[in-house]
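User: Structure please.
Assistant: Input sequence and predicted structure:
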Amino acid sequence: MIQTPQQFRQAGFGSQFAWIDFVNSQERDGFGRITDHLSNPVWLAYFLRHFDFAQSLPARVPYRTLAEFRELLRGIAEHLAAGRTPSASDLRVLNAALMVPARHRLVQRQNGFRAEVLPVRFGWPWILSRIAASLADTLTQFNRERVKICANDGCRWAYYDVTKGKTRRWCNTRTCGNRDRVRRARAAAKRAR
């Protein structure tokens, strides 16, 4: 169970894409065990802090709503990894999530000006809208063909492939990639007997 910021990062969270980290909050370890990080208030607090979504964990976590939204985003990640675009019904749900009243503010920081979008009222609808906005940014400003799902069927971690040739197959070559190589070597040894 994740209890520290270091464990949060070591587990592979803290990417630049909030929606991908949110999808991966249901973590499969590659051996059939599933950990649902949404039920871990420490993980949730680190997630919210990392993406600057809330100063503190909002009261009463709507687990069912979060889990349903995660499943929607998981389906979209699977579609993108397969080279398909989100369906019209998925876009309707995303657009509904984005419809949270907000105001814009210009602030001056040490390194210059920055435009901020702030909610009229903080809460879970605002957080879900920011997660949906992260996906919208991925679709409009990044190469959606780089969204992939780990080739390890026991893992299925979503990730953004930053390799030059878009050739990455596993979320992590040291864990899932190594497991795949070991499986293939054992299968080859078995066939050779």
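The longest helix spans residues 173-192.
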